[in-house]
Write a structure and sequence with these properties.
Low-confidence stretches: 273-282
Shape: globular
Largest sheet: 6 strands, parallel
Mean pLDDT: 81
Order of helices and strands: HEHEEHEHEHEHEHHEHEHEHH
Length: about 300
């Protein structure tokens, strides 16, 4: 009965919001509607339906890796009102991956680019002028750790073990996922209270491009932030085999690594990925960036 009541409540709520957004769209008369991460909000579902009723094209914007979240689109008909009409990707690579994962998809992917990152690099978005991370000269290396909002041992215990096995003159920049609830964040920060060389506040508040300006290397399980790191020529160490679902084509053992054992990760951090003066590595990184830029259709 409780489950049935939740269904009835959801149906009532979504019909309310469909009517609500229909009135707004009629009043504003937009030529198109854009959403981001549409499948996580009842508001997005309602906007999709309202837009389709009014004949307004709908677009969802890439916000992360294109994988299993979108596989269910492949069996959807054009009459399925909750889905967007188009999906804007960050480039040809992502459009190809979209089609590869959902070859019979009724939704049309469009190759675009990461507008926010592009505008930042052009200087259209001003950079923060004062923050502590870039003035801290006692640390030789700055390692960015990208937190993912689900509970996992890499949020605390595995990362603490890694930090304890690395030089003390490295600063660890711990960036929380934007969806992280206050309780989870508090528990994580408490777990690190005895470790001096971990920074949470600025690492989570600064615009990502500003943080990447300060980063020597990135560590993540399989966060889509790795895409931003590529554009900034920052090497990435993936510490979860799940990364193979998202980044198999670019884990090359030179710029981007997959390592799940602490000793192996430490060895990579100490030797390979920090050796950015190596000409071959630099050239390969530059070539990769040029290939990315070719797909951006600027």
């Amino acid at each position: 009965k409780l489950y049935f009541d939740k269904i009835i409540s959801f149906i009532s709520e979504i019909f309310f919001y469909i009517s609500y957004y229909t009135l707004i769209l009629k009043n504003k008369s937009p030529i198109s509607v854009f959403t981001c991460c549409y499948f996580r909000s009842i508001h997005s579902y309602a906007i999709m339906v309202a837009s389709k009723h009014l004949g307004i094209p709908t677009f969802d914007i890439q916000h992360g890796c294109i994988t299993h979240h979108f596989l269910h689109w492949s069996k959807a008909s054009n009459e399925y009102l909750f889905l967007p009409d188009h999906y804007i990707t960050w480039g040809d690579i992502h459009e190809h991956f979209f089609n590869k994962k959902s070859p019979t998809n009724q939704i049309s992917p469009l190759s675009g680019f990461n507008l926010w990152l592009h505008k930042y690099k052009k200087g259209d978005i001003p950079k923060p002028k004062f923050y502590k991370i870039n003035k801290n000269l006692k640390y030789k290396k700055k390692v960015l750790f990208i937190h993912q909002w689900v509970k996992h041992q890499w949020n605390t215990t595995s990362l603490i073990e890694l930090i304890n096995n690395c030089p003390k003159d490295w600063l660890w920049l711990y960036r929380f996922h934007p969806s992280t609830e206050w309780l989870m964040r508090s528990e994580i920060e408490t777990a690190f209270e005895d470790i001096e060389n971990v920074e949470f506040e600025e690492s989570s508040k600064l615009p990502l491009p500003s943080l990447l300006d300060e980063t020597d290397i990135c560590i993540t399980r399989y966060s889509a932030t790795a895409f931003d790191c590529y554009d900034y020529q920052i090497p990435v160490v993936f510490v979860d085999n799940g990364a193979l679902l998202y980044f198999e084509d670019i884990i090359d053992g030179e710029i981007n690594h997959l390592a799940v054992n602490t000793d192996e990760i430490v060895q990579i951090l100490k030797t390979k990925t920090f050796n950015l003066s190596y000409v071959g590595l630099q050239n390969k990184k530059q070539k990769f960036v040029e290939e990315i830029e070719k797909t951006m259709n600027l």
